[in-house]
Structure to design on (495 residues):
């Protein structure tokens, strides 16, 4: 097959970033074509129907935050925002064996909203909590410039230099690094972690939510329908092998079946490794492309367990951090999906940065997961497991290792008419669904700007508020107080 398809905008990748970009351009008068190699849309947020039970299964459980304005804008347009199930007020439920610690956002201005929950945690002494005050003040005052400088060092070294106690590091920071940044604390960029922490304690109120049903069902069919209704096209099962063009510009795509796409603009809505595979060889020595190998994938294993009985009424909980654990976070979909309240438990879990599961068989992963589950819910050991699924996911997000944050590219990587989207580009957000959607809106803005039709599509994130915001606004011009002495001594943060 050698026919040529012509379009104004060719979008490679039908994940959240690519679909958002296509939806954003739907009324622009430009023709769009989304090329997706998988047989279903949604990428790392896709879901499908489990053959045995007929239940929707996502690639792995995901959470939403109410502060996901770009994703919520997409869902609003698609008419599915009401299919998010929110757990109001509660942030996370931690379990330590059978004991439970509830992290709620108290009705206090930021950054004090988590303090009552931390004070109620029996494993944290007042001295531990007090040791976290300097790092909190430090984080709240960070500018983007400071965050880039802190990207060179690992978070655990900075926390220790700032005097945080070992107990607080293990209880709070090691968990946050693994659960949110998806890497162990010793391997996490201090800049990436502190940027997240600044937002976490800097917002007075946000909620955690889940999809009601299949994650992909929240956006993939609706986005497809909207794009096609506006004259756009979506090709599934179509793999791009390379961009066409030359050293200085992109002119289109070449597909694995020999077809070619000619396009005025190409949007690569892909993870870094996939972009590298299809980049033209002349582009690879360039500043953005040569850094692509630095974005290492964080692998996950997500396990689904169908039990014969109800094990809990909880929706979502996480184990306190232990490096020897298999799973981090647990969800009972029978308590999340609307109308499933009377069903037996369908538990799903995430094993994050899951090198430790690489040598395990699926059966061993299921056994290990049931064992961990029954430490909190002993009934799980007695219940019958009716069915299970283990999803091995090569990449959930890229690992925010030191040095990665400053290499996240802007959406213009160099070659003319080529734009980047995807969760990993420089959105100043952790790689996430929100970052992917923001990147999609921004890529569409860039296309329109190049045509002399500037538009404002991406939703900027609100800055921190409450006392935290006041502190930032009144003191941000002063230099950050004390960058840890050893950091200055080793010169690893250049002033
Ligand atoms: C198990 C798991 C749990 C997660 N938990 C959360 C969470 O709780 N909250 C959160 O916000 N985020 C979470 N994430 C991250 C989130 O899913 C991603 O950040 C987001 O979906 C990335 O979207 P994207 O469009 O940037 O990339 P992708 O979804 O990867 O889209 C890229 C698309 O490009 C396609 N493609 C690749 N190469 C080619 C080619 N050569 N030709 C054609 N098509 C190609 C791929 O098939 C894919 O569909 C999680 C991810 C996983 C896997």
């Amino acid at each position: 097959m050698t026919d040529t398809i012509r379009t104004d905008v060719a979008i490679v990748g039908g994940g959240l970033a690519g679909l958002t970009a296509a939806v954003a351009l739907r009324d622009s008068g430009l023709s769009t074509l989304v090329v997706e190699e998988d047989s279903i849309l949604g990428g790392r947020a896709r879901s499908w129907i489990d053959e045995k039970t007929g239940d929707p299964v996502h690639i792995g459980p995901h959470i939403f935050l109410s502060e996901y304005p770009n994703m919520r804008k997409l869902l609003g347009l698609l008419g599915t925002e009401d299919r998010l199930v929110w757990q109001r007020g509660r942030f996370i439920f931690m379990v330590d064996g059978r004991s439970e610690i509830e992290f709620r956002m108290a009705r206090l201005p930021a950054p004090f909203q988590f303090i009552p929950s931390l004070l109620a945690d029996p494993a944290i002494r007042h001295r531990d909590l007090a040791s976290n005050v300097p790092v909190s003040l430090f984080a709240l005052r960070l500018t983007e410039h400071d965050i880039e400088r802190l990207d060179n060092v690992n978070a655990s070294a900075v926390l220790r230099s700032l005097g945080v106690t070992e107990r607080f590091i293990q209880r709070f920071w090691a968990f946050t690094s693994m659960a949110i940044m998806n890497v162990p604390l010793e391997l996490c960029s201090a800049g990436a972690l502190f940027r997240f922490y600044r937002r976490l304690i800097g917002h007075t109120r946000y909620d955690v939510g889940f999809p009601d049903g299949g994650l992909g069902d929240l956006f993939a069919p609706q986005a497809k329908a909207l794009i096609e209704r506006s004259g756009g096209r979506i090709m599934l099962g179509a793999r791009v092998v390379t961009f066409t063009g030359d050293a200085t510009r992109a002119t289109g795509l070449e597909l694995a079946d020999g077809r070619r796409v000619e396009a005025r603009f190409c949007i690569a809505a892909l993870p870094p490794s996939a972009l590298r595979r299809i980049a033209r060889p002349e582009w690879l020595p360039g500043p953005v492309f040569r850094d692509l190998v630095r974005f290492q994938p964080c692998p996950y294993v997500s396990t689904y367990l169908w039990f014969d009985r109800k094990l809990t009424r909880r929706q979502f909980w996480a184990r306190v951090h232990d490096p020897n654990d298999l799973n981090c976070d647990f969800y009972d979909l029978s308590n999340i999906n609307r109308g499933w309240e009377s069903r037996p438990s369908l538990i799903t879990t995430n094993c994050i940065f899951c090198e430790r599961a690489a040598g395990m068989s699926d059966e061993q992963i299921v056994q290990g997961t049931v064992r961990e589950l029954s430490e909190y819910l002993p009934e799980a050991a007695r219940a019958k497991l009716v069915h299970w699924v283990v999803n091995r996911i090569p990449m959930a997000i890229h690992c925010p290792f030191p040095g990665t944050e400053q290499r996240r590219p802007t959406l213009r990587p160099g070659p003319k008419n080529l734009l980047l989207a995807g969760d990993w580009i420089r959105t100043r957000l952790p790689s996430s669904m929100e970052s992917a959607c923001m990147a999609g809106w921004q890529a569409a803005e860039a296309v329109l700007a190049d045509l002399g039709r500037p538009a404002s599509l991406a939703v900027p994130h609100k800055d921190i508020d409450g006392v935290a915001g006041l502190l930032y606004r009144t003191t941000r011009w002063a230099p950050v107080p004390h960058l840890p002495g050893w950091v200055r001594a080793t010169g690893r943060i250049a002033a």
Observations:
- Residues 12-18, 35-38, 43-45, 59-60, 62-63, 239-240, 269-271, 274, 278, 300, 302, 350, 393, 396-397, 422-423, 431-434, 436 surround flavin-adenine dinucleotide (CB under 6 Å).
- Residues 318 and 486 are 34 Å apart (CA to CA).
